[in-house]
Design a protein that fits this description.
Helix content of chain B: 10-25%
Shape of chain B: extended
Helix content of chain A: 10-25%
Oligomer: heterodimer
CATH architecture of the largest domain in chain A: 6 Propeller
CATH class of the largest domain in chain A: Mainly Beta
CATH class of one domain in chain B: Alpha Beta
Structural class of chain A: mainly beta
Radius of gyration of chain B: 49 Å
Structural class of chain B: alpha+beta
Number of strands of chain A: 32
Largest interface: A-B, 56 and 70 residues
Largest sheet of chain A: 7 strands, mixed
Largest sheet of chain B: 3 strands, antiparallel
Number of domains of chain A: 2
CATH superfamily of the largest domain in chain A: TolB, C-terminal domain
CATH topology of one domain in chain B: Fusion Protein Consisting Of Minor Coat Protein, Glycine Rich Linker, Tola, And A His Tag, Chain: A, Domain 2
Strand content of chain A: 35-45%
Distance between the termini of chain A: 86 Å
CATH architecture of one domain in chain B: 2-Layer Sandwich
Chain lengths: ~450, ~350
């Protein structure tokens, strides 16, 4: 009986101790937040301080390019200059954070520009206004006045990187097929431009049909397919000199859909030989060709993963066009797309985490992304014809071709954030298709 | 001693047996449903049933036809013999069935019938089910801002502000108001990211299925303060004694009632509306825990510090922490609204920013 009473008392005490411990809040108040907002981050970028005579205009222009780059991401929203309370008169003067807090600027970019002859120097700082701290240290770029625009892109890349923690993509270029004329008589030629459509240059004339240009990992060469000989053949072109040479010229075969390996030493492409299309790898230095797939079906649109160990491609071996992944040395391929419709033109993200693709389903075309194992498929766009995605160098934005319906339909370049936001047309002053994004310069 | 145990045991066994077998716990037999019937005779029953048809008395019987003569096979040196055929048997003509002598039915004698209308059970009062007024959540529309609670697009001339207010207008007498301000409204927001394919799916706001009414929540029991009893006092004393040794090291723990759930939610909502998540970035894979100290007015004292982070590389963690710090600092304004009498409980705060749910938007 005594034992029973003792046991009961001990149990009561234990329960009581637990209850009391639970009721008494020891330590800090703890809360968990799982819901936030998705909105552009408000920031201010006053005109950069002109530190030398004659640099007034260029300091204003650079600030506008920086703002355009940041605004164009959809992740930032510039607070217009007319709302600013403070002005930045000296690059090194302390920042009045209260003035920038008052207009809800969460980030502040200040900078200074000096011009000496044709030499241009730009320096900048980025501040977290509400923390009252500078994000990173100040940075300085030197160049020529001709390259002021590119220097502004570099500043914007650094700002973007400090705020988002990821690399930028503003100092990059895009090679694409410029198109002019009606659908039944369309003139196509290779062109290259800055990512924002500026500094457009043509690399070929419109005499021959050209398709699917692809930048090299260093950005100085472009692979493309041309019908110059009447059959599709792969060419490699030097962007600086516009010199080109045929890369694959084996009689009786057609080669197309080329893409560089990440190390730039080899090219993977489709070759049609005897009515069958398979994937081949060609060493650029030796010209040696290695067959990667052996299937009676059509294998095409290969794309390497960032470390060059795997290749994603499209094939109709299952009876319908689907995506497959295999070793970069060939061998058995694993199917990764299982949704409704047909999948094509897969491109591995520079981050390595996603694969972008074109999807055709129920008469509509989509640009979408999925994990590299085929999971978590998300469609980002939908239209009469969307195709040919290419990744920005930071793996954050996808550019693609959108063609409108009808005989008067035109092809244009569009971009969209990987989250599905910020869909917009890239202004290039005409028609365009088959974009390929360069690495950061 | 043993005799007593035997007697007790036998009595218990008997009692248990009576309980089990005696039908103590059996429920009452269900009432037998009785319905009244009338007894009628066989003649009456036959009169009520229809007369059966007499069988067909047809006597036409088809006689079998005799087989035709067949030529015998030619067999050499054999004497032809007449083939013996069985004489056809005459079929017996069936006797016509005699119609059974069925007596004419006699009408049943009338019985006393009570001409009373059956009493119908009184129907229960028909209670209409009131479908709760559950608002149909509108399809998200594409906006620049995605927030936990969607906000409708304000009028074009409206200034974006935290609070909703209308501009003061002159009254009917034409007298000007004291202060003329402009319309303000929160910025339009969607509850999720709307991609182009999703926009195509927005064809109608009408629900495709009816909303199932919610179960009425049970009324929370109002706990009345219990009067302390001598027993409670004894238990409390025992508990206090038992936990005295553990409580000693935590003498710095705040006293008084802790924050209520609503007060905690108030702080959580205040911070989350300033937490900007970039769902496409790698920072969206990072959960950070930040620590901060508040003064009595609810404002952050000193630096917001990173306590813990899971997922992502260093750059992603740094970005996630900066976003969390901005959220805490931006939304404090004049200080978080917390009960000052409970300051000891919210002086130190740890906030976990978990973006997992945001990634699915």
């Amino acid at each position: 009986m005594k034992n029973l009473a003792a046991t009961l008392l001990i149990g009561l005490c234990a329960i009581g101790a637990c209850v009391q411990t639970a009721m008494a809040q020891s330590g800090p108040l703890r809360i968990e937040i799982t819901d936030g907002v998705i909105e552009p981050l408000p920031y201010a970028v006053p005109d950069l301080v002109a530190e030398t005579p004659g640099s007034n205009q260029i300091s204003k222009d650079m600030a506008r390019v920086i703002a355009a780059d940041l605004n164009g991401t959809g992740l930032f929203r510039e607070i217009p200059a007319k709302a600013h309370i403070s002005t930045i008169t000296h690059f090194g003067s302390p920042v009045q954070f209260a003035d920038w807090k008052a207009i809800n600027a969460q980030a502040l970019i200040t900078g200074g520009v000096s011009v000496s002859g044709n030499q241009l120097e730009v320096k900048f700082r980025v501040f977290d206004v509400f923390a009252g701290q500078e994000l990173g240290n100040g940075l300085r770029f030197k160049g020529t006045t001709d390259g002021w625009r590119r220097m502004a892109h570099k500043v914007a890349d650094a700002v973007y990187s400090r705020i988002t923690g990821e690399g930028g993509y503003f100092d990059s270029r895009v090679v694409f097929v410029s198109e002019a004329g009606p659908k039944n008589d369309r003139k196509k030629r290779l062109a290259v431009m800055d990512y924002d459509g500026e500094n457009l240059q043509y690399l070929t004339d419109s005499k021959d049909i050209v398709l699917a240009p692809r930048f090299s990992p260093t950005g100085d060469q472009v692979l493309y397919t041309s019908y110059e000989t009447g059959f599709p053949q792969v060419y490699v072109l030097n962007v600086g000199s516009a010199q080109r040479r045929v890369l694959s010229n084996q009689s009786g075969t057609m080669s197309f859909a080329p893409r560089f390996s990440p190390d730039g030493k080899s090219v993977v492409m489709s070759v049609t030989d005897g009515g069958n299309t398979d994937l081949y790898k060609m060493d650029i230095g030796s010209g040696k060709r290695t067959r990667l797939s052996q299937s009676p079906s059509i294998e095409t649109a290969p794309s390497y993963n960032p470390d060059g160990s795997q290749i994603v491609f499209e094939s109709d071996r299952s009876g319908t066009q689907q995506l497959y992944v295999m070793s970069a040395n060939g061998g058995e391929a694993k199917r990764i797309s299982f949704g409704q419709g047909r999948y094509g033109t897969p491109v591995w993200s520079p981050r390595g985490d996603l694969i972008a693709f074109t999807k055709q389903n129920k008469g509509r075309f989509h640009i979408g992304v999925m994990r590299t194992d085929g999971s978590e498929e998300r469609l980002l766009t939908a239209s009469f014809l969307d195709e040919g995605p290419t990744w920005a160098p930071n793996g954050r934005v996808i550019m693609f071709t959108r063609e409108t319906r009808g005989a008067d339909g035109v092809s244009a370049l569009y971009s969209v954030d990987v989250s599905g936001r910020n869909l917009k047309r890239v202004e290039i002053g005409g028609g365009g298709s088959d974009p390929s994004w360069s690495p950061l310069q | 001693m043993h005799i007593g145990q035997y007697i007790s045991g036998a009595a218990h066994v008997g009692l248990i047996g009576w309980v089990l077998l005696g039908g103590v716990f059996r429920p009452d037999a269900p009432p037998v449903e009785v319905s009244e019937v009338a007894i009628i005779s066989a003649e009456e029953f036959a009169a009520l049933t229809p007369t059966t048809q007499a069988p067909d008395l047809s006597t036409d019987v088809v006689a079998p036809t005799p087989p035709e003569d067949t030529s015998s096979p030619e067999v050499a040196a054999a004497i032809d013999e007449a083939v013996q055929q069985a004489a056809p048997q005459e079929t017996e003509v069936a006797e016509p069935d005699v119609t059974p002598d069925v007596p004419d039915p006699e009408p049943p004698e009338p019985q006393d019938v009570t001409d009373e209308a059956p009493v119908l059970p009184t129907p229960e009062v028909d209670t209409a089910v009131v479908i709760p007024d559950t608002p149909v959540r509108p399809d998200p529309v594409p906006t620049e801002r995605v927030a936990p609670e969607p906000v409708a697009q304000p009028k074009p001339e409206t200034t974006i502000a935290d609070e909703l207010q209308e501009a003061t207008k002159p009254d009917e007498a034409g007298q000007a108001a004291e202060e003329v301000t402009e319309d303000t409204a929160p910025e339009a927001a969607s509850s999720e990211i709307v991609t182009e394919p999703k926009q195509e799916g927005i064809a109608s706001a009408a629900p495709t299925t009816s909303v199932r009414p919610r179960v009425r929540p049970s009324r929370p029991a109002v706990a009345e303060p219990a009067q302390p009893t001598p027993t409670d006092d004894a238990v409390a004393a025992a508990l206090a004694e038992a936990t005295a040794s553990e409580a000693t090291p935590q003498s710095s723990a705040p006293s008084g009632p802790p924050l209520t759930g609503g007060e905690k939610d108030g702080l959580r909502v205040a911070v989350q509306q300033c937490w900007v998540v970039d769902v496409g970035s790698r920072a969206a894979d990072v959960t950070v825990v930040v620590g901060l100290e508040l003064d009595r007015s609810g404002k952050v004292q000193g630096d917001v510090r990173l306590i813990d982070a899971t997922g992502g590389d260093d750059a992603a963690v740094r970005t996630a922490f900066q976003a969390a710090r901005r959220a805490v600092l931006r939304c404090q304004k004049t200080g978080y609204d917390l009960p000052e009498e409970k300051y000891d409980h919210w002086k130190d705060v740890e906030i976990t920013f978990n973006p997992e749910k945001m990634r699915r938007k």
